Amino acid sequence: MPSLGLLSHQVALVPLDAAALLHVTLPDVILIDATSALSQARALTRVIGTSGKHAPILLVTGEGGLPALSTDWGFVDFVLAQAGPAELEARLRLVTSPVGRDEVITTGSVTIDEAGYAASVNGQPLDLTYTEFELLKYLLQHPGRVFSREQLLSDVWGYDYFGGSRTVDVHVRRLRAKLGPEHEGIIGTVRNVGYRLVPEANG
């Protein structure tokens, strides 16, 4: 990951092989490269669970590998290989955070479980992609504040994202569709500026 070299963490590189981990001091987190050898990465995450190396696993994958991911692999979280330094640092911080710091954000009918990467509306789970989840979470964390598309691209997608601001519109449209007619209005459009979270009225 290019972003990893921009952070101040101490990194030890080992082959994608369980035996190699036996000779490494237990790290704070294990990053497994699943960008190409998906089956090998899956096997390794499962072996680690029985090897005594109980550090949390952060799986590094590409867009093409996302459909193959499953909770039975044994990783705590995943990150795209092209993720920016800010996102990678946040994910490293979250997977190494002590148990008990799980953050649950609730605004009106919408609830975000940051640690569990789960979202729900009126108790009904929302099937969100990673970016949709991050966008919804970001807006919920700043209710009422207006964000331009450029700000959202920088803070949610990462400053090194090369796509255009149209991406934000597409994700907002998908989010509103998944929230449903009764709740889509919580993501308000501010004409010629951007978007904001509109707190739902009680009752």
From TrEMBL:
Biological process per Gene Ontology, one example term: regulation of DNA-templated transcription
PROSITE patterns per UniProt: OMPR_PHOB
Domain of life: Bacteria
Keyword Acetylation: no
Gene3D superfamilies: 3.40.50.2300, Winged helix-like DNA-binding domain superfamily/Winged helix DNA-binding domain
Gene Ontology MF: a single term: phosphorelay response regulator activity
Any single GO CC term annotated in Swiss-Prot or TrEMBL for this entry: cytosol
SUPFAM superfamilies: C-terminal effector domain of the bipartite response regulators, CheY-like
Stored InterPro entries: CheY-like_superfamily, GlnR_N, OmpR/PhoB-type_DNA-bd, Sig_transdc_resp-reg_C-effctor, WalR-like, WH-like_DNA-bd_sf
Coiled coil: none
Keywords, ordered alphabetically: Activator, DNA-binding, Phosphoprotein, Transcription, Transcription regulation, Two-component regulatory system
One Pfam assignment: GlnR_1st
All copies of domain OmpR/PhoB-type, residue ranges: 102-199
Protein name: DNA-binding response regulator, OmpR family, contains REC and winged-helix (WHTH) domain
